[in-house]
Amino acid sequence: MPLLGNPRTLRLPSRPAARLAVAGALALAALAVSAPGARADGPAPVTPASVDALVRDYREDTGLPGAAVAVTRGTEVVHAQGYGETPSGEAVTARTPMAVASVSKSFTALAVLQLVEEGRVELDDPVRDHLPEFVTADPRADRITVRQLLDQTSGMSDTGFPSFTRPRPDTLREAVEGMRGAELAADPGTRWEYHNPNSQVAARLVEVVSGRSFADYLEARVFGPLGMDDSSTGDTDRDLPPSAHGHLRVLGRAVAAPEPPAFGNGSGGVLSTAEDMAAWLIAQNNGGAGADGTRIASAESVALAHTPSPVSGSYALGWSVGETRSGARIVEHSGDLFTSTAHQALLPESGYGVAVMANTGMAYGDASAIVEGLVAMIEGGDATVPQPQGQVLLLGTDAVFLLLGAAAVLLSGRGVLRSRRWAGRRAGAPLWRTAARLLPLAGPPVLFAEVHRVVGFLYRGRDVAWIQVPYLYPSFMVLLGAAALGCAAVAAARLAALARGRADWRSRAAER
To answer: What is the H or E stretch that residue 358 is in?
Structure first.
């Protein structure tokens, strides 16, 4: 359950798609004004009707199949609702479990901070003091602290340890044991670099220190106390229920697809609902206490989770800190899977919290786009819902790539049919010259086989598995696959024709 995007700078898309009026409700106004953080001269309160209108119009503009949305203010749930359908055609409701992807890192950080409160762990303790099984090929890893795992400054990186192309583990214990060959890309505490295994090590630390599985720990210490009855965490894509899978888009149409194989517990394994995420947002905005006063963490721990270190820049402990367009402080984290996305945001000055889960993949950014629209609405600005950047461009490029793929099929068919003529013209040519003519046909098949390395390079060294690339660029992979198969077919036909031609030449020579 991977994430390829860079959540350190969670700048949201900015292209508008539709203009929406913010609806008001007098009955809710007095309640909203009295909520924590409300200001008498502030913008009109957000209402269920205004949230519904925003999401409805966004779905109509983009074709987003389904989403779950939670909006809170202080200790009140403004709205928690599901929209549209799951890949299997069932309605998305406020209690439909969906993947929150890397939003899970904030849950992992809170679990560690609970152990810190109990005195069982210190943030600046070396990880190996509590987790002796955390051994790598780099001796510098002995100095990695618990804090550095959570704020992504451990020095670990995809360049030193592949997150996705390694053999997939099935448990957190296997995930940590599989790091024995890992090398660090920097000294611990000197550089920020987003790396999913950081959170997996942190989750395994929670297991070892607490003496219970990470799933059981979250249920007992977070989900249960907050009444998040439909939330859970899983290890791999096999643990995703049908409702947590999502869609790709091809030619602007959503196509249901299973999530590709990956391990994600601790870094991206939490499943939750609109109702449950509302409870989580309230606790985060209420100093670690739920709506009924049940406390899962101290106010100091929650504040610490929302505070970046000098080395990490804007990244805190499972959260990222920045500013909205109006200059207000925002504490947030996005989550990207290949068939779904999620985004959570806290606005401490107004007391609002927002969470969105959308069942389209990371190439489309739907969850973040909806969050941006909701934040704009909360701030009383232009509540225009932006389409994710490049969505119109993707529609055009899909059409171009698919047309080129069809052309590749036709051209390769023509090449196969004309292979004997091609071979006949080269019957007496030197072998090296004939081989040079065939060599360009190897380009598309080689690129098709190694495309994940190219994508990883374009993602600044992130580790990418081959199976993930069709989820990112489905129409391009159709084109590349058609070109690779076509080139292989033409090359095989030409080689066969050359072999037959040379056999005929030797036969005629023998007769003479």
So the answer is: strand 352-358
Task: Enumerate long-range contacts of 21-27, CB under 8 Å, 24 or more apart.
Answer: 21/53, 21/383, 22/46, 22/50, 22/377, 22/380, 22/383, 23/47, 23/49, 23/50, 23/53, 24/50, 25/49
Per-residue HEC secondary structure of 291-340 comes to CCCCECCCHHHHHHHCCCCCCCCCECCCCEEEECCCCCEEEEEEEECCCC
Type of residue numbered 70: A
pTM of the model: 0.86
Q: Quickly list H helices, 96-213.
A: 104-117, 127-130, 146-150, 172-177, 196-210
- Residue 480, token pair as written in the block: 């590349």
Mean pLDDT, to the nearest integer, of 337-356? 97
Mean per-residue pLDDT, 191-220: 98
Domain at 15-118+195-389: CATH architecture? 3-Layer(aba) Sandwich (3.40)
What letter represents residue 416's amino acid?
V
pLDDT in tens, 485-496: 999 999 999 999
Residue type, 486: G
Q: Is 285 left (phi over 0), alpha (psi -120 to 50) or beta?
A: alpha
Mutual angle of helices 443-458 and 474-511, in 10-degree steps: 150
Query: CATH 3.40.710.10 in the chain, residues?
Result: 15-118+195-389
Q: Judge whether residue 28 has pLDDT over 60.
A: no
> In 3D, which of 268, 257, 249 has the Cα closest to residue 7?
268
Closest to 96 measured CA to CA, from 335, 271, 237: 271
Coil, helix or strand at residue 256: strand
Distances (CA, A) of 409 to 375, 450, 478, 480, 496: 47, 21, 11, 11, 20
Average pLDDT, the chain: 88
